[in-house]
Amino acid sequence: MEIFERMEKHEHEQLVFWSEPKFGYRGIIAIHDTTLGPALGGTRFWNYDSDAEAILDVTRLARGMSYKAAITGLNLGGGKSVIIGDNRTRYREMIFRAHGRAVESLGGRYITAEDVGTSPTDMEYVLMETEHVAGILGRSGDPSPVTAYGTYVGIKAAAEHRWGDGSLEGRHVAVQGLGHVGYHLCRFLSEEGARLTVTDIAPDKVQMVVDDFGATAVEPDAIYAVDAEIFAPCALGAVVNDDTLKVFKFQIIAGAANNQLARTRHGEECHKRGILYAPDYVINAAGLINVYGERHGWDRDRSMKKAGEINWTLLQIFARAAEEDVPTALAADRIAEDRIAKVRHLQRSWV
C-alpha cells in the first residue's frame, strides 16, 4: 500500500521521516489523531527488515495509542515513533539526541517516551534536545510496574467475565515474554496464587522467573500449545494468527503486548471460538497512564489507582461485545471512537 493511501485509510494526520546518517539515525514519527490532545506514544528501536515494515508498525502503533488514550479517558492523542537500527548498540547518545531534534520539530504536537528497545536513560538524551519527552529518570521513570499492574487487573476482569469470579488463585496462566512488564506481571500473578508457565527468548530471564516465582519453563514456540486457561502475551505482536489459533487451548487471551492480533479477522475468529480476548490497547494502557501522570504531577499511588480502572473499562467492553454479539476488539474500538467523536464537537484538533 502507498504511504498516503495508508494514512488516509486509518486517518493519520502526519508522518514524519528524519535522517541523520552521520549518527546512524533513521527515524519515523507517526501522528494519528490529536482531537483529544497532543499525540503521545513511545519510541521503539528495532532492526526492521525494510522501511515498509517500519512504516506499517509505526502507523499501527500510533492508531492504537489514539484508541488507548480515548478509552481510558485521557486527554491525549495518539502517536508513535520508531528508530530503525540495532537496539543493542552501546553508542546511543547521538542517535537519541537526533531523535530529540525530530520530536522538537513538531512543536509539541508529539510527546515521546520509552518503548521496546529504549530506556529512561535514552530519554535523558532526547531531553537534551526537546522538552516533549516523558519517562525521565527521577520522575515517573520505568512504567513497567504500572503497566504490569494494569495488565494484572485486566486479567482479573477477563476471569470475572468468563467465570463469574475474578480470583486467579489456582488458575493456570501462560506468560510469553519476561521483560520488565512480563516479570512484574508474573510477580502479581504469583502473589495471588496463579500457576505459571513461562517462556522468553532470553534464558536468563526465564531462569529468574522460575527461581523467583516457581514457574514452569517451556521453549518459545511451545507456549502456544500449553494447556492453560489464560494466555498472557507480553512480547511482540501478531502472536494470535492462523498458525497459533490451531493449537490454542486457552479460554482467555489477556496480555501486555501491542498488536496481538495478526489481522482483524483473528479477533473475529477468537469470538467464534469462544476465546475471550482483552483488547491489547486497553489492557496495556497503564504505561500511557503512568506517562500522563508524570506530565500532570501525579504520584505513583494515583497512577496505580487510575491503572486499576482498566478492570472496569474491560468489563464494560466485554458487556458491550456480548450485548451486540461482536468481537471484543470491535466493541473497544466503538467505545473509543464514540469518545473521540463527541470531543471533536467540543474543540478543534490540538495544534
Describe the structure.
The protein has 351 residues and is of the alpha/beta class. Helix content is 46%, strand content 15%. The protein has helices at residues 3-9, 51-71, 93-104, 120-127, 144-163, 180-192, 203-213, 242-245, 264-273, 280-283, 286-295, 300-308, 310-324, 328-344; strands at 14-20, 25-33, 39-40, 43-46, 77-84, 110-111, 172-176, 195-199, 216-217, 230-233, 252-253, 276-277. The strands form two sheets. Strands 1, 2, 3, 4, 5 and 6 form a six-stranded mixed β-sheet that branches. Helix 7 links the parallel strand 8 (195-199) and strand 9 (216-217). The two termini are 28 Å apart.
Short description:
This protein is 46% helix and 15% strand. It has 14 helices and 12 strands.
**Name of the top-level CATH class of the largest domain:** Alpha Beta
The third-level CATH topology of the largest domain is Rossmann fold
The proportion of residues forming helix, as a percent range, comes to: 40-55%
Mean pLDDT: 94
| CATH architectural designation of the largest domain | 3-Layer(aba) Sandwich
Q: What profile does the largest beta sheet have?
A: 6 strands, mixed
Question: Secondary-structure element order, as H and E?
Answer: HEEEEHEHEHHEHEHEEHEHEHHHHH
Number of strands: 12
First-to-last CA distance: 28 Å
What's the CATH H-level homologous superfamily of the largest domain?
NAD(P)-binding Rossmann-like Domain
Q: How much strand?
A: 5-15%
| Cα-atom radius of gyration | 19 Å
